[in-house]
Amino acid sequence: MFEPFEFEFMIRAMVAASVVGALTAAVGVFVVLRHLSYIGHGLAHSVFGGAVVSFVAGINFYIGATVWGLVSVFLINAVSRRRQIGGDAAIGIITTSAFAVGVLLISRGGSFNRDFEAALFGEILGITNTDLAITAAVLVVVMLALFLMWKQLIFTTFDQDVAGAYGVPVRAVEGVFSLILAASVIASLQVLGVTLLAAALVIPPVGARLLTDSFTRMFFIAVALGTLTGFFGAYMSWFVDSSSGATIVLLQAAVFVLALSYAGARSRWLRRGARETERIAGLEKTVY
Question: Is a pLDDT exceeding 90 seen at residue 246?
Answer without folding.
Answer: no
